[in-house]
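Bench notes, afternoon.
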Amino acid sequence: QKKHTCPYCSAEFTTYHNLKSHLLTHNQDKPYVCISCQARFRRLHELKRHTKLHAQER
């Protein structure tokens, strides 16, 4: 099976999709912003999980 290797830390993945997701951990960009508290996230699912915390506060 092909290995997809991270050029930054040599982590290996069986799919390109998983490598692509992993590469975000090395990127400093955080394009997803919480409208309630302005916290920033690298991944949309992280923002969605965080947003649920604000919903529980109500």
